[in-house]
Amino acid sequence: MSAPAVHRRPWWPQLTPVLALLVLIVTWFSHEHWLPLVVATAALIGAILAAVHHAEVVAHKVGEPFGSLVLAVAVTVIEVALIVLLMSGGGEGTSTYARDTVFAAVMITFNGIVGLSLLLGARKHHIVSFNASGTGSAVTTVIALAGVALVLPSFTTSAAGREYSTSQLAFAAVASLALYAAFVFTQTIRHRDFFLPVSSDETGQATGLLDLDEDGHADPPPAREAWLSLGLLVAALVSVVGLAKVLSPTIEDLVVDLGLPYAVVGVVIALFVLAPESIAAARNAARDRVQLSLNLAYGSAMASIGLTIPAVAVAMIWLSGPLELGLEPMQLVMFALTVVVTAFTVVQGRAYTLQGFVHLVLLGAWLFLTVQP
Fold it and tell me: Ranked by mean pLDDT, which of 243-257, 264-278, 359-373 comes out on top?
């Protein structure tokens, strides 16, 4: 009688974050030559893939919607550290770096991650279903956050340009934290069921909650493995942001050489930082769990604003120079279009391939107009 097969966990996710940290330490002080840059790029890609793996392990252990929240908050906390670090370095574009990076995160999540998730889910299953109540509340919260933090500074008159005065910035920081905390309480405690995957009939109408315990997936990992994955997830995300910082001078030089707007730097960094969430959302969509993909997308956008603005407001106590948070006219128009399209996408609680394609076209338009304003 043959022995039962033993399920072996892949070894590379455990090794990659450690190697990425070592590469980060080595290249942090010397990265002018092309070879360290190539190694840093390879380590960055490996850290992104490892972060996705460990985030899924942690999510499987804690359950939803806590799992989606773990990755969104973890990525955003490290993203905030990167923004403050780059702002403290001074130089061109410092005054608008926080705005450009946060707005890039909103556009990438609202149109990129959501569009890709809907496209993948609907391509395989023709129509995808999600809870319109939970998703709609998430979208509403992000719109309110973006309105307070990014839209209103373009129209206030207490400070010059697209800036908040000190008192206005303090209010925006407190309001952002309050909105984010209220949503997290709603998502994880008060109305948790609104953010769980739903089952549906052949027309895409939701028929109830999807049974996540009887879907054919492996049992949740033991606590020890989950804690190990949580530590490696943090290490991988630190590596992602640190290596992105190492590569940022090269990106900045390339942007200058090509004559592109400085906002492109924020877009590239945001693409790197949000890559783990993008991959995780795509995987969930392919498994007919678009609700989890939407949780990741809108949760990331919400955390990006709700945590970044308060952190930057505190950092401005010792950082010198202006802080421009207000969106420019093209950005305002793209945000307005995104809000309108998103409202029609989520209101029915189901979507087709077309909606995903529309969001991706908006993402492409924003990227093109950022490069060619």
Answer: 359-373
Question: Is residue 128 classed as helix, strand or coil in its secondary structure?
Answer: strand
β-strands 206-209, 198-200 pairing: antiparallel
CATH architecture of residue range(s) 13-371:
Up-down Bundle (1.20)
The residue whose two tokens read 């925006």 is 172
**34-62 and 66-88 helices, crossing angle to 10°:** 150
Q: Are 40 and 31 in contact (CB under 8 A)?
A: yes
Per-residue b or e along 267-293, where b marks 16 or more CB atoms closer than 10 Å to that residue's CB: bbbbbbbbbbbbbbbbbbbbbbbbbbb
CB-based contacts of 137: which residues, under 8 Å, 6+ apart?
Answer: 183, 186, 191, 194
Give the angle 124-128-134 at the CA atoms, nearest 5°: 145
The 8 Å CB, 24+ separation contacts for 280-286 are 280/52, 280/55, 280/56, 280/71, 281/113, 281/116, 281/117, 282/116, 282/117, 282/120, 283/52, 283/56, 284/117, 285/116, 285/117, 285/118, 285/120, 285/121, 285/128, 286/120, 286/121, 286/124
Asked whether the beta carbons of 285 and 296 are under 8 A apart, the reply is no
Residue written as token pair 């702002």: 87
Quote the pTM value.
0.80
- pLDDT at position 2 is 43
**Does position 310 have pLDDT exceeding 80, yes or no?**
yes
Tell which wins on pLDDT, 362 or 251.
Answer: 362
Around Cβ 40, how many Cβ atoms within 10 Å?
24
**Could you read off the pLDDT of 33-53 as tens digits, one per residue?**
778 888 888 888 888 778 777
CB 290 within 8 A of CB 117: yes
Euclidean distance between CA atoms 149 and 308, whole angstroms: 10
Q: What is the pLDDT of residue 117?
A: 93
pLDDT at 165: 92
Residue with tokens 């793209």: 334
CA 177-180-183 angle, to 5 degrees, is 150
